[in-house]
Input
Amino acid sequence: MWFEILPGAVIITTLLSVPIYAMYGLDKLTIGNAFRRNMDERFSRVMYQRDFRLTDNPYKMNGLEQIPDEEEKKEEKDPYEDSDDPAIVKKREKERKLREKQLKKEEKLREKQLKEEEKQKKN
Output
């Protein structure tokens, strides 16, 4: 009869569900968390790597407070610093001159503000 298939169906269903539930325990033992993050799409992999880099624990919720400020970041070395390419040398020199010009403007502005503050203090 039709009910003769029930024992076989139960056995097959049980055997197919064992790996699913076994992964819970294996993940808990190996990575310390019972659930793995989905790595099917590239964005998910990138977010996993970002969280791991920021907190060394990709399963911990990370907010903006975990991302270091720009001042805290170490200055990265310019990859073209030792380059002999004339175009790169010219570009670097142009950037240096622009930075110097901006610093001079800021210095003049600070001096002007200091003079104004001194005038206000005198009055």
